[in-house]
Amino acid sequence: MKRRSSELKQPRRKSGTFKKAVNGIKLFISWKVPVFITAMVQDSTLGCVEDFKDFCLGELGASGVRFSPVMPIGRAKNAPSGLGLSAAKVKDLFHKGLISGGDENEDVFTRLAGSRNFYCNAGIGQCYISAAGKVYACHYFQNIGEDMGDLPVKPLERVYREYSDSGAIAADFDWEKLEKCKACAHFAKCRGGCRARAKLLSGSWYNPDAFSCGMYGVERSDAIQEQVE
Length: 229
Hints:
Blueprint: H1 17-30, E1 36-41, H2 49-60, E2 64-69, H3 87-95, H4 108-113, E3 128-129, E4 134-136, H5 139-144, E5 149-150, H6 156-164, H7 179-182, H8 187-190, H9 195-202, H10 210-215, H11 222-228
Parallel strand pairs: 1-2
Antiparallel strand pairs: 3-4, 4-5
């Protein structure tokens, strides 16, 4: 990045990690593989967001970049407060188009109810594979602890087919149970947010996603909202 704050100079990962990541991205791009970068942002690094976006799209040649705050899950569940991003700044990034939301579609529930998949198609149109070869519907499912299969044991095609027929949540989601989200005025855009994130933050697949609610200025129960902030 062109501009670095003093906080950015304090590495949170091993020395050389950033260089390796950049080299890996450039390698994929040289192979004509589209690369989309998701970067974590916090209050102390918010001022570098625009520069980082320019770096990713311009210097690296990435196809897209988006930002996300650190979620209080996994190893970050008890992370120091300095890693957080305030609700007001989340909304600011969202309105600037730097945190993605849904496109408005008044018929969105009718369309989603006719499907049994997450709208992001996690586990159906995309998956996440860990360094150990575990396959997950997305990276959040790794934190949840629900995998699709294990590549050292069976090929990806078999993992996918068995998961699709298993009745697992990402392959057989009941949109009718999303009662609180359906009643929200922002549902046509939000589409219920991220179901896996809702599970991690609230304990239920069918509760609102407090992070997505915050982007649209909707307050939820204090217990859930506190986890996001």
